[in-house]
Amino acid sequence: MNFDSKFSAFVKEVKSACKEVFESYLLRYAFGVDASCYNYTPKLVINALNEEEVLSVLALVRKYGIAITFRAAGTSLSGQASSNSVLLIANKGFKGIKLNEDASIIECECGVIASEANEVLKPFGKKIGPDPATIATALMGGILNNNSSGMCCGVSQNSYHTIHSLRVVLLDGSILDTGDALSCENFCKTHKNLIKTLFSLREGILKDEDLKKLIKNKFKIKNTTGYSINALLDFSETRDIINHLFVGSEGTLGFVSKVRLKTIKDSAFKGCALLFFKNLEQTSRAVVSLARLPLVNALEMMDYACLSAVKDYEGVPNILKECKEGYTCLLLQSIADSAKELDKNLTELKEHLKDLKLAFEPLISTEQNEFDSWWKIRKGLLPIVAGARKKQTTVITEDLCFKIEDFCEGAELIKTLFEKYGFEGVIFGHALSGNLHFIITPNLNDQVQYENFSALVCEMSEKVSLMQGSIKAEHGTGRMVAPFVELEWGSKAYEINKAIKTAFDPLRLLNPDVIISDDKEIYKKNLKAMNAIENLPLESELINRCMECGFCEKNCPSKDITLTPRQRIAVLREVSRLNALNDFSKANQLLKEYEYYGVQTCAACSRCLDLCPLNIDTAKIALTLRKSLNAKFLPLAQKAYENFDRLLSFAKFGVSLTNGASRIFGEKRLSKISSFGHKFHLPYIPEKMPLANSYILESKFEFDEKIVYFSACSNRIFKPNLKSFQDQRSLQEVVESLCLKAQISVLYPSNLSKMCCGKFFENFPSIKDKNSEYLKAELFELSLKGKLRIVVDHSSCFYEMFKNFKDLQVLDLSEFLFSIASKLKLRKGDKRILVHKLCLLKKLDKAHFIEDLARLCSDEVGVIRSFECCGFAGDKGFFTPELNQSATRNLKFETKDYDLGVSSSCTCEIGLNSYCELDFVHIAYLLDALST
Fold first, then answer.
1. All structural domains of the chain
2. Domain FAD-binding PCMH-type spans what residues (predicted)?
3. What are the pLDDT digits (tens) for 412-437?
């Protein structure tokens, strides 16, 4: 059987064993993208949801001899998560977290985001040891498999030194849980040859004094070059040896489905300092000096190129703008168990700083908001610096480690290599550990720069090895350093590495060419070209700076059904690359598929913006493409605009019909019937549809204080239809009631039935501009030329009007209600309230008002954590319901401990009410019920 036949048979069986298998070129390319400088497209992508699926896949891998790579979040930087064969992703499932009784051990399945593990530990005053810059995105499986450390954990608190036990699926189909005595006992019986090999390797090390010394010395500093062969020296029990061998094994020995880490104390009191020096040499000497102080638990270095790249970002201290060419910075942290102890530490630090040659007075702070902004810059430094690169250049990042006494020489080595090979590089890193990172951004299409990159890596590896440093400190060996493992370790230690790989994976089917590779040029193959995306609007050019780090993915509502923000960018880059090669057929096919995967299922919520260090708003891609895709519907949109009042009347009639059908068939059955119709492009009907709103809007009251009330078209169409929440008044009636209590007159625009905020026409710029001009003129007059506040009762519509009518006082209803709360006689109720914050309010930093109101109404208030955007996105809950369903899939678990949900969007409420047992209503209803 030839390879193609074998692979076809493999795919067929995989599809019967796993729920989510992707074959299309678009999805294979998109999922093949990671944060590294490599560009591999897998032949097949499997999104494994549980351990059973992994077992089935590995059985087929053995049967057909097909290579496989495991991936977590794809934040890896060294090519260890790339594949041109089969890529198995463990991101969507594997989300379980457990603590033991005193929270001294945390058990995480491999798909748990590391920051979420810390959230669970926070009430106990504890955290996990590893703290990589990607902690808000990286998964526990990836952190363990890379032996990740980070900014504060050094060596003593990394994955290797804090692991308690793990659960691993081996290539032969066996499962070992090193935290289970019976599992270990059975494994020792069934895998005698493997264990014999490991102990034979251990015995060889114990007999070789030079090798013992080498291993001990090399793991005193950060080192992820090769396997954790120190496990063979540090431990004598099978369980412990295997436990620690899998740390940093990068998926080359087996699939780690679960990890248990010993937790560490999270000191409550922290103080930080920003220290500036005039050159790299002075900074390096300061590092050696400060590293000797016990009070310093973190010390981060940033050179002038770093400071220059971040100086204009929001929240950055103004002093960065005063830094001259060559200036370098240290970010220092000290921790303590009491304010008194911290004060003592900082006093001692100030004394020590008197002996250092500082360029400015040190910035020292114990205010968390202030020093958190400093750390945010450091954590986002890689994508920020990468974003400043020239077009079509590739981001190459390396990390090295030196003994602290060699730190100055190591920093000078990197600087010298930059000069020799003509790169304007950036140097930063975890200086307290002697760990330095650097970034270069070569244009790999330029043969000279390509050869210079290759030569730099070779010379760097040779010289770092001679200094007894680590060519890879914490980013993992991957493909980047696989050819140089023997160079760093020598032939005897390298043979041990190879023997470990062979013992667990004799056929080299698990993540081939990672850590162990026979291809000495693998590090410079399949490098990203980073083509620029074509035809972006001018204000969206920032999108081309994306380095595909994946920081954005956590917030995206479509991440589990189609594409994430970085994948949308990556696919469009591939379209540009194919066009440049004149492969227009393949490029056009990608674009055609992209309409669904990148445009229709983008909620345009901009929540990716919140996590992106470069402030890239990927929603602009979908918004731009929607305009061109909808251009053919312009005549229809024009008719809708001219007959907007009739359109709304028709919509109300449709809601009434739906309500009637629901009474006949039942909510669930009607929704199921509509689900079938949706396959033929008919709207989907969610289970909890609201009632039709027939309330007549007329200006009321005659108080001195007045507001203009712009009621959104959706609130003119809908009113609540909730069984447990008895108030079925329209939202307008509720707002009028609150205004009456606060003695405020309500003025409705006389032509409100014909008015739209503009969002309905956002895909038709000419109509939207005409609508905006008319609406602004009407509101300008009614608000007495901007003197009266204009209150909008749907947060999405408020966002639209707020950004377009800057010279008018436009308020979201939640903000307005908070402003008048003091005029109401308000009592607290006994309901436990869960708050839904609309994504676009978060973008404007106005989402806190609804939570503030909820806290006026109850002592027990929570905020939805299971998603950042519900994915209903205006009408997408009707036309792309899978987006809303996916985004809210964990809401039913989160709502169990609450009595009522509050929101500020009637459309989002439809989705929220349909996918959980809790009732969600506008916050105004709760406020009115509890006030007189």
1. 1-266+495-518 (3.30.465.10), 269-475 (3.40.462.10), 538-629 (no CATH), 646-929 (no CATH)
2. 38-266
3. 999 999 999 999 999 999 999 999 99
